[in-house]
Design a protein that fits this description.
Length: about 220
């Protein structure tokens, strides 16, 4: 007997979107890694902004940003991320002395727009992950900030080599990680009650695609 249920159809539709989104982000990362390993680094690395935009678009589809608070949280993460980066580049006093290369796309006052977007995407994704593990707002903020710092540690290893950003004398100061943690902690406190808990599977895969990219790229190019 073929029983049709609107709720069942809606559930299957959501599952299909989630699975398709996960396949797409892994396809792009694996393709880039294969291309880099074959010597096409100069073609794939400048396409990083496109990869980030695709990840962002799929995040919007998988997470629930229908409420005004959720949208506002994303905007806050973008603005705060861009703001602290602009001050950091201009003064050299926040993250250390550094500047952005050309492979992250268009810039505002020396900071690529993609960096602000990356802050917002990472906060949203890690918020989904840690809130499925902890119930405490403090613990989720700490865990979410730590997840972002861990990713940043692996990014810093390859950032200069990929012409994403460059620190003075190629040395990443400890203050960079401390400020990353503080800013991420604040943004996770904000997102705890403002972004609906939805899309954890996609968020988990999005995070690990980023982690995989930087780890494998290091192994390929080092």
């Amino acid at each position: 007997m073929n029983i049709k249920s609107p709720m069942l159809d809606k559930f299957k539709h959501k599952i299909n979107i989630s699975v398709a989104s996960i396949l797409v982000i892994w396809l792009f990362v694996i393709s880039a890694l294969i291309g880099i390993s074959l010597g096409f680094e100069d073609w794939f690395i400048p396409k990083t902004p496109l990869n980030l935009l695709i990840g962002f678009g799929l995040l919007i589809i998988n997470l629930d940003f229908s409420s005004s608070k959720a949208k506002f949280t994303f905007v806050i993460a973008f603005v705060l991320g861009m703001g602290v980066e602009i001050l950091g580049v201009a003064t050299g006093e926040i993250f250390g002395v550094y500047y952005y290369g050309d492979n992250m796309g268009l810039k505002l006052l020396g900071v690529p727009y993609m960096i602000g977007l990356y802050w917002a995407v990472l906060v949203s994704a890690t918020s989904m992950i840690v809130r499925n593990i902890f119930n405490s707002i403090f613990l989720t903020a700490v865990a979410g900030a730590m997840a972002m710092v861990i990713l940043d540690i692996f990014m810093e290893v390859m950032a200069g080599r990929l012409d994403f950003w460059h620190f003075e004398k190629n040395i990443v100061p400890m203050q960079n990680y401390i400020v990353w943690f503080i800013v991420a902690f604040i943004l996770h406190l904000i997102s705890y009650n403002w972004i609906p808990l939805k899309g954890v599977k996609y968020s988990l895969h999005l995070y690990f695609t980023q982690l995989t990219f930087f780890i494998v790229t290091y192994l390929i190019l080092s």
